[in-house]
Design brief:
This protein has 222 residues and is mainly alpha-helical. Helices cover 68% and strands 0% of the residues. The longest helix is centred in the N-terminal third of the chain and has 39 residues. It is globular and about 75 Å long.
């Protein structure tokens, strides 16, 4: 019995080493694939030195770094109002699955289409560079369920009105709007790197529009 147990323990140790080596190999393969993506999209050069786009992406933590950066370098964000900007950014931070939501207004339809188009391009490049990514799930992660709420909140609607529009738990709505504010602060720093005073002003103005009322109270029990 002792010999059999010792043999089993030895086999287990061997399997653990095999699993560890396999995980390391997978990690290395993913790292190489990610470098291919970053080079292809212009975030690093052949010497793996960060470009301006790469440094801008490093400023983003609250949303998809690649999609955010691509949007910053496109004409889209410069053409939006503060309300449209907030509504659009909800797609980058809202992670919950909802069965129903307020349909986005006409002013948001085209910006949302362009964001989805950008995300689809990022997913396609990842596939071509052999970086494992579930394209369908990736695209679903950019949900417009809170876009109308973000737009109206930036426009000055009351908390009760926002709750009716959101059709989700109040806590989820508050969390989403707070994350939009965090993302906006990061985008201010990113826009400063690019040298776009217009975007810096737009993002700062958006922060002042949404940081109000019970959503940003120190405690929801106050």
């Amino acid at each position: 019995q002792f010999a059999a147990k010792a043999d089993l323990l030895a086999q287990a140790r061997v399997q653990e080493q095999v699993i560890k080596r396999t995980q390391q190999m997978v990690f290395r393969e993913e790292l190489v694939a990610m470098k291919r993506v970053l080079r292809r999209m212009g975030y690093i050069d052949e010497g793996e030195i960060l470009s301006l786009k790469g440094r801008v992406a490093c400023e983003v933590n609250s949303g998809d770094e690649l999609v955010c950066t691509e949007l910053l370098f496109s004409p889209l964000l410069q053409s939006l109002t503060v309300e449209q900007t907030v509504g659009l950014l909800t797609l980058l931070v809202f992670e919950e699955v909802t069965k129903e939501s307020a349909p986005p207004r006409d002013e948001l339809v085209e910006p949302i289409r362009q964001l989805h188009e950008t995300a689809a391009r990022v997913a396609k490049i990842c596939q071509e560079c052999r970086l494992p990514k579930d394209t369908e799930e990736y695209m679903k992660s950019f949900s417009p369920a809170m876009a109308e709420v973000g737009y109206m909140w930036a426009k000055g609607c009351k908390f009760a009105e926002a709750c009716v529009l959101a059709k989700i738990h109040e806590g989820s709505m508050v969390r989403c709007l707070r994350r939009v504010a965090e993302l906006l602060q990061e985008l201010v720093a990113a826009a400063q790197l690019i040298g776009s005073k217009e975007l810096v002003t737009r993002f700062q103005e958006a922060v002042t529009h949404i940081k109000r009322d019970i959503v940003f109270a120190a405690s929801l029990y106050l």
